[in-house]
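Q: Sequence in, structure out?
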Amino acid sequence: MTNIAGNTGSGDTMNTLTKFFNPFWNDSYTNGQYEVIENEVLKASDLKGLTISGSLFSLTTFKNVTFESCVFFGSRMENCTFVDCKFINCDFQFTTAEHCNFEAVSFSNCKWDVSPIRKNIFEDCLFDDKTSYFAKKASNFNKLSSCMTHREAFRSQVGRRKEEITEKQEVTATQLPPIPSELEEALISTPMEGFKTAA
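A: Exactly. Output:
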């Protein structure tokens, strides 16, 4: 926990990502412009309510990490790899993501305030509308492969489900044994009670 009382005047403390990489981190190491996290690997972690401020992530790999309700403020992510990660309700303010690889990453309800996403590679990612807008923006030079928004994924899933149901109905209909011809003739020629037959 880094004391931010001098910065905010609130007397509160803030969780920083550095503590997850190095629990023996001393506050005296944070006097530089950026809190540098380089050549690290973080796996299978759930990070909730984390404030990441003034940090530089370089050549760092995140695998199966969930960032929930986190704030990235005045930070940079460069040449990082994110695999099977989730960003849920995260707020990016004055934060840059460049030359990163995002593989099977989901972004849900994220905000991007003066936070460019450029020159990244996105593969099999799921975007909220705002992230999709910035990731697909031509001037950001991102490469996207097999990515879609949550809305597109939902529609695709509904479409596949309808196709599966239709296929099951067709298969079931073709698997029924044929009706013997004498029974079929009897069913056709016998009027049902309460229904009038056409003359």
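The two ends are 88 Å apart (CA to CA).
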